[in-house]
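Q: Structure for this?
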Amino acid sequence: MAFDAGATGVYPIAPTPFLEDGSVDFHSLDRLIDFYQASGASGVTILGILGEAAKLASEESRAITRRVIARTDIPVVVGVSAPGFAGMRLLAREAMDAGAAGVMMGPAQHLRTDEQILAWFANAVEAIGETTPWVLQDYPLALTCQLSVPIIAAIMEAHPSCVMLKAEDWPGLEKISALRRLQAVGTLRPFSILTANGGMFLDLEYWRGTNGSMTGYAFPDMLVDLYRLQAAGERDAAHDLFDAHLPLIRYEQQPGIGLAVRKHVLMRRGLIKSDALRRPGSRLSPAAIDEVGYLLVRLARKDSRAKP
Amino acid sequence: MAFDAGATGVYPIAPTPFLEDGSVDFHSLDRLIDFYQASGASGVTILGILGEAAKLASEESRAITRRVIARTDIPVVVGVSAPGFAGMRLLAREAMDAGAAGVMMGPAQHLRTDEQILAWFANAVEAIGETTPWVLQDYPLALTCQLSVPIIAAIMEAHPSCVMLKAEDWPGLEKISALRRLQAVGTLRPFSILTANGGMFLDLEYWRGTNGSMTGYAFPDMLVDLYRLQAAGERDAAHDLFDAHLPLIRYEQQPGIGLAVRKHVLMRRGLIKSDALRRPGSRLSPAAIDEVGYLLVRLARKDSRAKP
Amino acid sequence: MAFDAGATGVYPIAPTPFLEDGSVDFHSLDRLIDFYQASGASGVTILGILGEAAKLASEESRAITRRVIARTDIPVVVGVSAPGFAGMRLLAREAMDAGAAGVMMGPAQHLRTDEQILAWFANAVEAIGETTPWVLQDYPLALTCQLSVPIIAAIMEAHPSCVMLKAEDWPGLEKISALRRLQAVGTLRPFSILTANGGMFLDLEYWRGTNGSMTGYAFPDMLVDLYRLQAAGERDAAHDLFDAHLPLIRYEQQPGIGLAVRKHVLMRRGLIKSDALRRPGSRLSPAAIDEVGYLLVRLARKDSRAKP
Amino acid sequence: MAFDAGATGVYPIAPTPFLEDGSVDFHSLDRLIDFYQASGASGVTILGILGEAAKLASEESRAITRRVIARTDIPVVVGVSAPGFAGMRLLAREAMDAGAAGVMMGPAQHLRTDEQILAWFANAVEAIGETTPWVLQDYPLALTCQLSVPIIAAIMEAHPSCVMLKAEDWPGLEKISALRRLQAVGTLRPFSILTANGGMFLDLEYWRGTNGSMTGYAFPDMLVDLYRLQAAGERDAAHDLFDAHLPLIRYEQQPGIGLAVRKHVLMRRGLIKSDALRRPGSRLSPAAIDEVGYLLVRLARKDSRAKP
């Protein structure tokens, strides 16, 4: 599987598993990565926001990168967000030296005008290396910077090394259509669009022209099934599968605590040992655990993977 | 039905119907208000964000207020957000003089610290009148100001005229539980909590202690059914009903374009004549209309109210 | 004096004087407007942020507009900021019907991308009327929206009715130079640039290409002198005058409390009767009054207008 | 000189000098640090925003810290801002192990409510070590988080290891008075308050109760003189000195480009070899260099240190 402008399928965003004492749980990481590959994922993304990247010491980030790349055959994309270009340069070089397929970055929080955004990405691409393949993360809800369709097009034209858009603007459906229209008439070069935003619109995004998903939902195996149904044109079946999972998808997509939900479900599924987060993250309350349990029981009636 | 700290049930947020030429469509407004009452709504809220309040001339706002109050027997709550206290004073006086049950207001956008927030509400309550019953809108995603549990408690203690919390923080489940815990141990006085946020968590919020909902979902009749099932302890049936609607609820809850979706569905249901919005709002794209239609077809299999 | 793209000189931003009981003090308003004209102001701007416009009832705003226009021979510019286009349409029509020379507006707070900004101004200009002369206020510190040089140029090209830029970005010197360069090579049409930002950079802005100032400093007579010295090429004398006032200019330019300082100084100068503000504004503390008094004593050594 | 709650005088914020090729210029750094000490500074702060900390690789930060501490006898405070607690823990440990007197940190950008702020500082203090002396940076204009007087008091009470407030809120004079009043009546423990904000209010802050300054103005020697005049009660002389420098202080205090101005002036003073910044920073335009030159010529008439 290639990580390029033609990439398709599912790239799960991997959380970083911790042991109860807060150290990185490499055994769970191995199990998780193996599960992604076995589930049919086209690639995997590590050290994003969901991976608690900002809570890791740089040695830990490097160790995780090397471990994952050594473990799996599918392309590994590494998040390289950092407060400055020096940090991004370092992270990108380490990732690519370790064998990553590419890196991921989103715009810095303070960027507002189109002029500022284009200048920032010029510096950022210089920092990660002009030939390093990268994913543009468009996630205004978390990153605060808003990217319009014209500015995404301008970034893509200025930087041929960008091979993929991680589309998680909200609302985002018209944006996907607008980009695909520009490509259809030839005024914008081709690139892959994978969607995220917790997967909240996966049932509809495919028909707008996306190539798959890059999100951290705790049932990545369902994401692969969903993509295959869509690619096969099985629209109703795809919706049925999606609708069964939507109550849980919606629950996982809560800002801030969503990661605790995901880790908890992954733990219940036996994929990681502990649902511990590093501070300032916290675990689920007893009431939340009950809610997740109830949603899983309901889901299990339609998808046996949710059975305890 | 009383609008006080013991209020329960469903208070739909009413959109303002317009004709194709942009003028207020009072006939559709009548039909909509009649439908709310006939559906079993406990009250109705007008001139909120969803009601395009900021796009109305003051004469129009007054006319709408008088029309709705004259039309219905259920309590009418009127949004009084304005850039300054003078505007809020005027709007609140007009609403109460016209016979409103109370008013609704959320914190100004620039407020940050607890000190600023408490001072602002002291001024705001003085402006609307110390005895005017009001709803506190907690909606950080749209209003940007964040209200912690301690500051909500402080506002409630400082202002006995606040009878209701419109809870639409996201995530919001733990916040509801925390407020109810304070009330259970007697350190916080009682008040009603209705939830909004497009209804995205209505299946779970009731069991956290809410008293109903105040949201603009285009099936307010379903919201009443849902509340009744929950109040009757029919948890599974309530979830089944909710799950059937969730794909559409999710589609309506998209920031910005959500109102266009709601007006479109209300028009398809025959409740308003046109789905026109005032600028800068715009109507749905053909692709979005197709998606809504498809979601309604799927919904109709489980809830006949969605049939064309 | 004409209010058009060739406008020059000083347009003071007028505060709205209140009596101790909070009502509008029309006698002080007359005195203030007379003083502006007698001081050599080229025009006057009313109902801006400094004019506490958001704290006025609409009847008060109309009364102030009519009073000022009837009182003075110089062009009157009226702020028309409002939460929606309906409000802006109404305010602009009332102002122009009353005989205003033009209106002033800045971008709405939520605007981010170039695409959003251009679309918003298209709607706003349609609302105020395509032929109504207007001032573009560029004030990111207060309005949060940032306007780059390319987007200002695009607004100016799209809307020939915009005759003036109220430049108060910070930093702003390079921005003025960049706009003037575009005009020098003929890729941007001519328009007037008056600077504000409390006057903090008036000593330097003129030489970057500005045509005067539009700010609320409590010595508008000094602003006129400064402009005349600059226009006469008396750079050192202009700096000497500016430097004498800078400690007070700096004190007045404090966000939030700056208006209280200005009203206090205007009261001490005998130009308004009371330094009262409407809520949430508050008066100066005793310590601040002492500081202002001390700064005035020091200023009086160099400019006798500051004498008690 | 001790770095504790009784600290007084001037702690310059040191820029990081670079050579033309972008590498750290350790010789200039030595010269600069020597100059601070020779000028009578009570301490020095490195690796703050002004020190371009986010643009340094971690090895560079460590090398700078060790170099400065080895070079000087005065207390060295080290900025430890980082995106997560893991990074802060590492930076603080490295700084203290190298012999720093303490560390500096400001609140993370996303913090809003009092509850969030207190929880964040509890985690942050745990990360840097409960006994590590630290400076609380209150700089809303750059950090966006606003700290009210009650929340600063709460932080100070919760964390005895905080010995100093770097006060750079704007406006900030009333805040200083309010904190000193709380201390005067014994409801708040003592701590040092040094002011920053580019030094824009240094003439007035001392009389509100501050103990000196911690800012990066390119004439730290003047800051020491100013403090001595104030401490000696020479108010008029202090103001005369301040007023002479205010036009340049104001020019340096421009957001974003202020650092370029400072490096340029330090270079003209012979204190650093090059005025190079790392990206995204850029050097001054020719017009700006002319303006700085002109302001220095004017300043030199009153303070010979500004002579070329």
